[in-house]
Amino acid sequence: xxxxxxxxSCKLFIIVFIAFFVSASPxxxxxxxxxxVYQFLTLPYSAKATALGGVNISNLGSDLGLAMYNPGLLDxxxxxxxxxxxxxxxxxxxxxxxxxxxxxxxxxxxLGWGLHYMGxxxxxxxxxxxxxxxxxxxxxxxxxxxxxxxxxxxxNLGATLKLIQSNYGIYKSTGLAMDLxxxxxxxxxxxxxxxxxxxxxxxxxxxxxxxxxxxxIIMGVSKKLESAPIQFSFTAQRLSIWNNTLxxxxxxxxxxxxxxSAVQDxxxxxxxxxxxxxxxxxxxxxGYNFLRRFDLNIQNQQNWFNGFSAGLSFKLPRxxxxxxxxxxxxxxxxxxxxxYSLKNAR
Length: 346
Prior knowledge:
A 14-stranded antiparallel β-barrel has the order 1-2-3-4-5-6-7-8-9-10-11-12-13-14. It has helices spanning 3-28, 47-51, 64-67, 249-255, 262-267, 290-296; strands at 81-88, 94-104, 109-126, 132-152, 155-168, 171-185, 191-205, 216-224, 230-236, 270-278, 282-289, 308-315, 319-328, 331-341. The model is unreliable at 19-30 (pLDDT under 50). The chain contains six helices and 14 strands. The two termini are 29 Å apart. It has a single domain, classed as Porin (Beta Barrel), CATH 2.40.160.40. The longest helix is centred in the N-terminal third of the chain and has 26 residues, at 3-28. The chain is α+β, with helices and mostly antiparallel strands.
């Protein structure tokens, strides 16, 4: 691709990105939408993302698991890297993520691919009277391809095309979506800022009637301390929706819950993360998700750790192992990721 053509493409990318951001906000800024389809797309793709609060688009470092969610984070150091993640939920519900990356030096492109899969196991099928009619398998998955390239010094642009498939017995649905992102990293690599439009698209076929995808406009910034091996992240998600909580006035009044305040609405968009490096091989991750805590807190029950998450990473010459967990009431869900480099040196 010629340099002039590439620059023109980048300018068009930015114009489309800004136009979409501006147009999306007034359409969806009023309240939380309860009929968004493919909610599995909102789950973290890697253990580090889980540990950092569920969503992080600006973490300083080179992490293919985070780049699977934000294509602008793809960089040449991920060349010939493979990533596999596994996370178990209740019963037979399991999440699998598999991805890889390849760098093309002549074009200065980083290509990525991935599969995000949610399996719900075998489920009994009944009629309206409760009579059993056998079992069916339920699952969701998305296959995606990504590309990222430098736009200007310190600025990376990325895009992902996603084909979504959902199967619940006789009910099936297919969707098509894109992720568009821009990432700025300072020359000293102590600051990174990113903006991401996640799940821009729609259904090609629906179960019964068309539903919206879980559009998410996200902004994030991470700052690494110059004199200490610690970095902090601030993420603001679902910026096109002001009231980010699922609020049912009838239920809240009957149960004696307070109406979310304007301040609570603001904080429910925020996720805070931190990473501490213990030498070159081990790092500890921590996160706090305000919205998760608000949604999970129940009166007259222990809610101490709702919203909190933590994890660690261990690096070897060609292998990196990550572990992350998040608290949901009294349940702790474990997320494992492994990264393997096909190259002799990282």
